Input
Amino acid sequence: MIPLLASKLILKCLERENVEFVFGYPGGAVLPLYEAFRTSPVKHILVRNEQTAPHYASGYARESGRVGVCLATSGPGATNLVTGIATAYLDSIPIVAITGQVDRALIGTDAFQEADITGATAPFTKHSYLVQNAADIPRIIREAFHIASTGRPGPVLIDIPRDVQLENVKTGLTCDKVAIRGYKPNLSGHSGQIKRAIKKIKEAGKPVIYSGGGVVLGNAQKELLAFAEKNNIPVITSLMGIGAFPEDHRLYCGIVGSHGYKYSNVVMNGADLIINIGARMSNRATSQLTEFEKDTDFVHIDIDPAEIGKNMETNIPIVGDAKTVLSELIQKDTITDHAAWLAEIEIIRSENPLIYDADPPCSDLINPKVLFKDMSEMTSDNATVVGDVGLNQIWSALYYRIIKNRRYYTSGGLGTMGYSIPAACGAAFATLNKPKEIFIVCGDGSFQMSMGELGVIAEHQLKVNIILVTNTKLGMVRQLQCDIYGKGHYSGTDINFDIDFMKLAEAYGIKSYKVDKNADFNKVLPEAIKHQGPTLIQCQVHPDFIRI
Amino acid sequence: MEKKTCLSLLVENNFGVLSRISGLFARRGYNIDSLTVGTTENAELSRITITVTGDDQILTQIKKQLNKLIDVITVIELKPDDSIIRELVFIKVKADDTTRSQIVEIANMFRANIVDVSRESLVIEITGTRYKIEGFFEMVEPYGILEFVRSGDTGLQRGGKMLSH
Output
C-alpha cells in the first residue's frame, strides 16, 4: 500500500466535505498544504490579507448555506484570522478555519511564527483542535464540519503542525460517522412547551413575533410566513433577522433596537406576548424596550439553550431548530385574527413615519436614505446586499427593502468594519455558476479597511457592485460624538484626505462612477448592474448627514 | 440570592479542556470558588468538580454554557442531601512543647491526622465538609495558623447513580 502524505489527506478530506474554495494566504507552516493544492480539485483563492479570509468564508457560507473555509499560516497568519473568527462566532456563521502550526517539538518554545491560536480563539470558536497525529485528520475534519454546521452554527478552528502535514498515513483513511459524546444538538421542541406556547398565543391580545438570525440561518422563512399568516401575528426582526420575513408583507413590522425603526420599538413595547424565534435579545436590540418586562409574556425559541433566559426572563422556553419548531407550531389548531391589534399597529405606524430628511437638511448632495429606497426599486428580486459597519450599514438595513429572495448580510454582533467587501466576494464565489446581483455597501472608513481585496475582485472579475457612500468622515462614531459630547466635539473621525476613488478603481480595472445627486445615482445604477465585470459607484453624502 | 453550588462534570480528557472550562468562567465573569480535576475509571475521560457562587439565573447559565463546550459530556449539580462532598486541607499550626498536646487532642476530635512534626509547628491533614473544616480552623486559630492549603471540594452522588450513565 502506498502511503499518503497527510497534507494530501487534508485536501482529500476537504474534497469529501464538498469544499469548492479555500480562502487563504500561504506561509512557512502551511507549505505542505500549498504543495497539495497544486493537484487538488479544491480551489485556493489568494486573499490579500489574512484578516479578510474568514469574512470570505462567512459570505460564502451565508450565500451557499454550506460551510466556508479559510486558511492561514502559523503565528501572524493565524492571529490575523482572530477578528474574522470572532465575527463569525457572534453571528453564528458556519466556517472552518485551518491554521498551520510550528512543528510539534517546537510548540511551547516561542519558535519563529509560533502563536497559541487555539488558546487565542477559545472564547469565540465553537470548538477547536490541535492535531497531534496525522491519523486523526479524517475524524477531526469530519467533526469540525459537523460541529460548524449543525446546532447553532459557528466557527471551528483546526491547528495543524507543519510536521503533522508531512507525516505519511495509510491510504484510504476516511471518516463518515460522527460520534461526539458531548455534542448532541436538540432540534425538535419539547411538546409540553409547544402546547403552553399555543395556549399563550390563543390568549394573547397583542402578540408579536420577534425574529432573529436563527430564522435566516435555519432557512425557516417559509415556515415563519405560514405561521404568521395563519395566526395574523405581526413580525418584527432584529438586524440579523433581516431577510427572515418579506418587508412588503402586511404583517411586517420593521426592525427593532437602538438602530431600528421607531415604530417597531413602539409596537414591541406595546405587545403582551413576544414570540422570539432565534434572536439573542442583545443590548443593541433591547435598549429601546423599556416597558415590556413587567407584564409581557415571553416565548423564546432557540437552538442554543444557553440563549434562553440569558438576557431576558422567559416564561416558555423552547429549545429547537426554528424550521422544526415552527412546523410543529403550524400543525396546532390555532387560528387567530388579532384585527384590533393590527389596526392599532397601523396607527402606531402612521404616527411614527420614516423620516427621510436629514436634520438639519443637507439636500445639496446625496440623501443616503433615499438612495437605498431607490435602489430597492432598481435591483433584482434575488439580489444580495452586504452592508459594512457604520452609517452605511444602518441606512442600507433600514431603507433597502428585502423582499422575495433578496438577502442582507452584515456583521451584526461584533460590528467588524471591513466585512462587506470580502463577505460579498465570498457570496460571489458561492454563486459563480449562477451569477446574481451582489452589492457591497460601505463607507470610506470601512472601504479602506479591506481595500486590498479589490485585487481579488479584479483578478477573478467578480461581478460585484460597490456602493461606496463617502463623506470623508467616520460617520457613525461622529454621530456618537455629536450625541454624547455635542456638535463640534469631533475627534479622530475626519478622514482628511479626499481619496480619488475613481483612479483607485481604475488601477484595478474596475469600472467606476462618481455621483453627488440621487437622480444621477438612479441613472448610473442600472448601467453599473448591466456592466460585465465589477463596478464601483462613489456616492457623495454631506458630512453633516449623520442621522439614521 | 447568591448561593454556593457544587457541580460535577464528566469531560473528554483532551488537550486544553481545563483551559476551555476555566476560560469560560473568566470571560463570562462567573465566580469560581474551587476546581478539582482528576482521572476516572475510563482513561479517555476526566472528572471535574467546581464550586461556584451565584444566583439561580447565573447558576443556570453556568450549567448551560458548560454544556455548550464540546468536550463536556455531562454536567450535574451535586445536591448536599444526595451526595458526598469533601475537601482535603493541610494546615500548618504553630506548636511548641506547651501547646502541642492540646492541638493533637483537637485534631483527634476531628479525626484529623498529624502528618509532620517539628519543634515549632505541626502539619495537620483534615478531610471533611466545609462546615467541619471551618470548625477545625476555629479551634486551632488561637494557636496560630502559619499556612494552609485546600484542595477544593470534590464529590460523588450517593447510591447507584453514576455520572457516565
Observations:
- The two ends of chain B are 32 Å apart (CA to CA).
- The CA atoms of residues 81 and 158 of chain B lie 9 Å apart.
- The helical segments of chain B are 17-28, 56-68, 100-109, 130-140.
- The mean pLDDT of chain B is 94.
